[in-house]
């Protein structure tokens, strides 16, 4: 159904909201020199204050757990071994991990320092309560958009109060503060300055963002860069192909970039799929070998990195499943108290490995509406739902089972009142909007970089309950914010 102007809302409200979004960089690139505003909800979704506070308390604990797991290199290799044989991409990642950290017979001390900028995504299930959907340890973006949509909702509440209240999800409530862009930038700037100081280098700290070629989600990236520039950090952007010819080693094992000099922080917004490492102009014995070696080269230098190869493996669906299946007592091996481990476990959704036994159980007794089949992929398009699950499992060779997992399906609360979605300058009433809540954390060498134990803000993506793909730029999703009730 096409988006149409809503008869109960002055067109000026939508015009100004869309213009505000474009003016503040809440946009997607469409072609050279053109852009469109991101889809957004006109008013925020309500969430119980105690639920949100619980998520804010638990998420930094999860991030600390992930950091400690990611630095347990023998454990990472042990858990990911079978997956690497079933999934070619994770096979390559594990190969890189062994190059950086050594294998079972030899351990190598990698000089890179881990900067974990992570987004933990939740859905608030009607029955189970809020549960983790996935960990995002690489290319965990859209924090700046999370702050921008909160600011847009604040603007609309102040400027168009009557229209805002008409479409609000609750008569009462308080907009949940979201300074995600500023908090992430502050943490990165602190890290960059520390790395440069420890190296004894003078001059402006430098932040490198590794990006995909010709991507559309560039404004979110530029917003973060602009905040870093305000904090005195120089920002540069390169693809893996560009870095292949431009990186070299400087004094004190510093990572150097041609025409720029020493680098202090490397932040990967690419590298979560094989195509990010493909190049048609390089001769190599196997696909993606040359550009993937760029990650090994980076991590063998004195530089802060997000995401390290180990962080990426530690936030995989398989690792999520393994941690979910552990009793809290086992989680304490990674520096958590039993209380902290039990707190984390409350938010982890049930997961099962795909094996011949679980495949048989699912065929005989499993309820397809209560499970989701997931592979290791990042982003949308990597889940199988409902009646499609069993045929998908039956079509797999057993050698592919290790690349998949079953997760208990979450049916989140629908918005209490109809919402007004805004896309391409037009509106559409949605009666069954549901939301995914992503909380950002930032830690350097396991230490929090914000005043809230590492919590750095949130991202809300809402979509109709019937939509399986909720991407903001490649699905039916829209940016949203929170109203605390």
Automatic annotation (TrEMBL):
It holds the Pfam family GSH_synthase. The keyword Ribonucleoprotein does not apply. Its cofactor is Mg(2+). Signal peptide: none annotated. Residues 206-314 form the Glutathione synthase substrate-binding domain. Belongs to the eukaryotic GSH synthase family. This is glutathione synthase. It comes from Parendozoicomonas callyspongiae. The lineage of its organism: Bacteria, Pseudomonadati, Pseudomonadota, Gammaproteobacteria, Oceanospirillales.
